[in-house]
Amino acid sequence: MLRDILSSYSLPILIFLTYLAYRELSSRRTRLPPGPKPLLIIGNALQIPSTSPQETFTKWLDEYGDVIYLQVFQQPMLILNSLEAAQDLLHTRSSIYSDRPNFVLLNDLMGWHNASTHVRYGPRFRRHRRFIHQTFNQRSVEDLRPVQEKEICYLIQDIINKPEEVDQHFQRFAAATIMKVTYGADVKSNDDPLVQLAHRAGSLTIQSGTPAATLVDYIPVMKYIPTWAPLAGFKRNAVIVKEAVDSMFSIPYETVKSQMASGTCSPCLTSRLIEACSPDGVHCLSREDEEDIKGVAGTMYAAAEDTTHCVLSTFVLAMVLHPQVFKKAQAEMDSVIGLDRLPTFEDRSSLPYLECVIKEVCRWNVPIPLGMPHRLMDDDVYRNYHIPKGTTVMANIHSILHNNCPQPHLFRPERYIEDPHLLDPKDVIFGFGRRRCPGRHFGDRSIWLAAASLVCTMVISRAKDDAGDEIIPEIAFIDAFVHHPAEFPYSITPRSEKISMIIDQELLRVLGA
Question: 284 among the known binding-site residues?
Fold first, then answer.
């Protein structure tokens, strides 16, 4: 009987063994980049830590080099640990490295497929970039200056009134600037319904990143598991997330459409795109046009709000930890600006030390340590190594910025003065090639103006305990896609009673312009 069973399965077994032998011989003939030895079936899945993988990849640099090949189940991955490798592949060869992986969890189950960051490379991607470029190119962002200047005034007012809620004020500032530009909406607080929509979608997406949910991206067949099955919790969660994501993209868009119909809409990115795509009226848009406009506007809001908030929180943490840096930046500010006005963009070139401080903030805590993943669209050869089509490619920005300077774990803005040729973090934190963040000019200006205004108007220092002793915060970051600082103690107070009057005068100027 056993012989009969073996005989009936002999052909499938023979085919399977032949396939394994073919793969083994093929892999020997094909020289893949170096990397840790994979295990059978699961590959390197167990060697990639679930927390701070960028640090592990950075440590592997000494053992495997700056181009590391991994395999998670049947999905090949490439980690780029150096600027040279990232530029060679993601920039110089961007024509075949500009696609995005098809994340089953995010795209198929949670509805992020319309987001510009997740759109596959092709005509639709190029259309999204064209839409964004019209508002956020280097010349056009100057027209957005009044929005940023107005929200800076509100930010300083908020901090004066409630200094214990600085992180929430940063969140509101970041949301308000981009919400006004994308949807024409005025955000007065973090309780704004449109802001809450985005926060809910983002937090639910992060919370849904369980091991089972992540696994579906490497074993796509898992998406067909019935929702009632034991391992299908991620699918049940995905239904909730998809509803939140759909609301985040649709409700602000529908609000703008309604305001346009009633003649009460403020000019914004969404209204301009609707007018350009439907000159005969808002009700004549095609479904494709609507999906693209929703995707562009929603992506710009979600991306700009979180990263700006992250950098500003990191800035305050760094100033609390390094009071001598803050005092030096403030002395420079006083020599250029004085105590009777706020800094403007025209002052930027006259504040070189502040520029170094902001660079060091972005290097010390990279907002998105592994950047956004790319996908190779065709087989490629690099340094005599074969890189197979479909490989997920990630630039380890953490490694790139930490390995380009001495004593990388120290916060030292002076390093950029001592070495003027040191890599500027802004050249890498926004990504590479055709996928480089199209809103980088707007984001950079928002961060600079906020940091400069804080230095000009506030005293940032360490909090004190009940005994009057200074509390030195722990250097800790939340391990998520965007690397926010963990909550920390601080003290922030206005430099003088004149600050409120200066802010009132500036608001009158901006609102009257």
Answer: no
